[in-house]
Design a protein that fits this description.
- The termini are far apart.
- The protein is of the alpha+beta class.
- Helix content is about 35%, strand content about 20%.
- Bound molecules: 2-(butylsulfanyl)adenosine.
């Protein structure tokens, strides 16, 4: 076959395959048999393999992924993937409160006309970002921490909803953001097949979607019934954004992206609340899961003006639905010991299906909570599950509490009954209680740790009881090791739950530093560990030695120091020694570090054992790049000055103005007070300007600000 003939044949095959794909995936009406389809597909694959010049980047053959990856590359999101603030009030006032905040932020008067919003569904899947260059899909990434995601291009190529080439005139760069998800009916069908083949079914649509996108082997992702909805954009080059979010979604639809049909444009909050209600009533009929609706300010210009607060836009909110609840029976109450030694009472439940999964445990949080709710063995309880969070016991159905005949008579019986009344919170003891009392006693935490027998201590004034055993306690050691190895900490892949338990039981590890002394033969002797996984783990441990200061700080598991605080600390101090030696005053200079966090850090470094672990980590070869650390605010013409921005400036966007001020050493605050040095006022400045005048604060316009910035 000449190259011309091959090209023509390949073109025909692609067209044919795509037509069948559309019929199968979009219309749910197959137009060919599997065998005939496979024959076409294989012929195209063979042609492309023989003639690499024919291998078009948007060929349907590109949807079957390449080889499994060893790990995902990191993708930096130039435009961060933000999260949306959640409105906790699930009633109508959720919409009203959002509207009130937006109007206040825009300094609108009560008589100003209603704001135009959009409302759409809050899909329950995994957020992804899709990058198109000159119309071709070139990269897909997960959200990760919002700034750094994982490159999951191979897996996303297998999602038939995601166009490999944009329709119409495509801009040089367009990043589209949206949700990868699985429909409930597709999940059920998939699970049926999986069970028949002896494979593990997917727990629920959300975990199914997230788990599938994060598979290293694209063939697995390709076997899952993933779909996609677009709801926003990231980096854009060479394309004029439309004026509104609604038009933006329409434009994405025109480019070939699926955009969910359940969306509205509304004037003011009342229609938003209506939409929330209406869609809430239709959750069972809509074939995919959504856990709320998202409201957004429709005008992109207004969105720009509203800007962001930390990682959340002020122009959007997620209005959730109430969590799902179910009734079941408590079969036991166990006490678990966490990574920080905290003792948590956990109710073991008769399995119950709630919020899409079967629940067998529910947290009682702590002793006070367990007492307050007075949950006892044998009780019928209401359990609630909301999204990702651990199921919890909402309350006890007291009428169903199992009772035993009392052995008391006379005054004793009276006292016992009074005790029941007190314990149950009932004003009057109903019939069945007469002469009877609860069969099981009220819950009490043990005085010693159930894992290691160490003392249990209560924090001053705190509700939390902790095991004093530290890393001597196997439960704390296990938690510490799993945290140390976790993806966002030292990122040691292959160090799972079961293995850590064995390593501890066998006395192989007593601190995280011991991980670096593990050998392949020792690991291979553990249950369910082959030579290959042992060698892989040793390699992963070796690789983890090259890390960053932020990761190391996070990995140490200092109480109250999460990932973002660890990053702030690393940036601020630059060197481990500087953090190690910092006193409370120095620590509290770091953004978001207050007295409590500072104390946790001081406590941590005061403990000789912790210092020794760090020294041993360094001796084992753990290393990172140190830097000079950053002063709190760079010195500049605005050092120490506090600014408030209000209204719209003619040329400079609010976020840019803020950045300019901060780069010059100034601070930007949200409200005017005596501490304010300057108010920068633009068009339609409202109450903040009035207040500034009242307090006699210097008022600048854009020109005045820019002038001062130049050091004039
Ligand atoms: S907009 C700047 N719209 O919710 C706003 N997010 O907390 C960016 N989500 O994980 C997000 N449905 O994946 C937006 N219609 C929708 C959404 C939606 C679901 C998810 C998103 C992210 C989370 C944000």
């Amino acid at each position: 076959m000449s190259i011309d003939e091959a090209a023509r044949r390949a073109g025909w095959l692609r067209h044919e395959i795509e037509t069948h794909n559309r019929a199968y995936y979009e219309l749910d009406a197959p137009t060919t048999t599997d065998a005939a389809y496979d024959a076409l597909f294989r012929e195209l694959q063979a042609l492309e393999a023989e003639n690499p010049v024919l291998a078009a980047p948007d060929s349907p053959t590109r949807r079957v992924g390449g080889r499994p990856l060893a790990q995902f590359e990191t993708v930096v999101h130039a435009v961060p993937m933000l999260s949306v603030q959640t409105e906790t009030d699930t009633g109508a006032s959720g919409a009203e409160d959002f509207d009130t905040r937006v109007r206040r932020e825009l300094e609108l008067s009560e008589t100003a006309p209603p704001i135009e919003y959009t409302a759409e569904l809050k899909f329950d899947g995994l957020a992804v970002s899709l990058r198109y260059e000159h119309g071709l899909f070139v990269r897909g990434a997960t959200r990760g921490d919002g700034l750094n995601g994982e490159d999951v291009t191979q897996n996303l190529r297998t999602v038939h909803d995601i166009p490999l080439r944009l329709q119409g005139a495509a801009p040089p760069v367009l990043e589209v953001r949206g949700e990868a998800y699985i429909r409930r009916d597709d999940l059920a069908r998939y699970n049926e097949k999986a069970r028949a083949c002896g494979e593990k079914p997917l727990v629920n649509p959300r975990n199914g979607a997230a788990g599938s996108i994060r598979q290293l082997d694209p063939a697995i992702a390709g076997s899952r019934p993933l779909k996609f909805f677009a709801y926003g954009v990231g980096v854009i080059e060479g394309w004029r954004l439309p004026a509104t979010h609604r038009e933006l979604l329409d434009a994405l639809e025109a480019f070939g992206f699926p955009v969910c049909e359940h969306r509205i444009v509304a004037q003011g909050w009342r229609s938003l609340a209506d939409f929330h209600d209406r869609m809430g009533g239709r959750r069972a009929q809509i074939p995919f899961d959504f856990d709320g609706v998202v409201y957004k300010v429709n005008s992109l210009a207004l969105q720009n003006r509203l800007g962001f607060r930390s990682r959340e836009p002020r122009w959007a909110v997620a209005h959730k639905y109430p969590a799902e609840e179910a009734r079941t029976v408590v079969t036991a109450i166990e006490v678990q010991v966490g990574r920080t030694g905290a003792l948590t009472p956990v109710a073991k439940l008769k399995p119950v299906f709630v919020g899409g999964v079967t629940v067998t445990n529910a947290t009682l949080h702590n002793e006070d909570e367990a007492r307050r709710k007075d949950v006892r063995v044998g009780d019928t309880v209401i359990v609630r599950r909301a999204g990702d969070v651990i199921p919890e016991v909402v309350g006890v159905v007291l009428e169903e509490r199992p009772l035993a005949r009392m052995r008391f008579r006379g005054r004793e019986a009276f006292l016992a009954t009074r005790e029941i009344v007190r314990a149950s919170g009932m004003r009057k003891v109903p019939g069945p209680y007469s002469g009877r009392m609860p069969r099981h006693p009220a819950f009490e935490l043990p005085g010693t740790c159930p894992e290691c027998g160490s003392r249990v201590v209560r924090e001053k004034g705190g509700a939390i009881a902790r095991c004093a055993g530290g890393l001597v306690c196997p439960a704390q050691l296990k938690g510490a090791l799993l945290h140390f190895a976790s993806r966002r900490a030292m990122d040691i892949e292959g160090l799972g739950d079961r293995l850590v338990e064995q390593l501890i039981a066998g006395g192989h590890v007593e601190t995280p530093a011991d991980l670096y002394a593990l050998t392949a033969p020792a690991l291979a002797s553990m249950e369910r560990m082959g030579d290959k996984s042992a060698a892989n783990l040793v390699a992963a441990i070796e690789e983890s030695k090259e890390t960053s200061l932020a990761r190391l700080i996070f990995a140490l598991g200092i109480r109250n120091v999460g990932e973002s605080t660890a990053k702030d600390l690393a940036r601020h101090f630059g060197k481990l020694a500087a953090l190690w030696e910092a006193d409370a005053v120095a620590l509290e200079k770091v953004p978001d570090v207050g007295a409590i966090v500072a104390e946790s850090i001081l406590d941590f470094f005061a403990e000789a054992h912790n210092r020794e672990v760090i020294e041993r980590l360094i001796a084992a070869g753990v290393h990172w790049k140190e830097s000079e650390g950053q002063a709190d605010a760079p010195p500049g013409p605005f050092s120490g000055k506090v600014f408030v921005l209000t209204g719209t400036l003619p040329n400079v966007k609010r976020d840019d103005a803020r950045a300019l001020i901060e780069n010059a050493g100034g601070k930007v605050s949200g409200s005017v007070s005596k501490k304010t040095d300057y108010v920068v006022a633009g068009e339609e400045a409202g109450s903040k300007l009035d207040k500034a005048k009242e307090l006699g604060i210097d008022i600048l316009d854009e020109a005045g600000l820019l002038q001062r910035l130049q050091g004039a």
